[in-house]
Amino acid sequence: MMQSVDNILFAGNASFVQHAAVAMRSLLETNTNRQFRIVFAGRNLSETDSQNLHATVKDFPGASLEIRGPAEETLSLLERGNYSVDIYQRYFIDRFFPAGAGRALYLDADTLVLGPVGDLLDVDLQGKPIAAVAIPGSKRLDYYNFPPGLPYFNSGVMLFDLHQWRSENYAQRLARATEHYARYLRDPDQDILNACFVGNWVEVPPIWNALRPIFLRSSWMGLSEEALDAILDGVRVVHFNGPIKPWHYVDNHPLKDRYWDVLTRTPYRGYRP
Question: pTM to 2 decimals?
Answer without folding.
Answer: 0.96
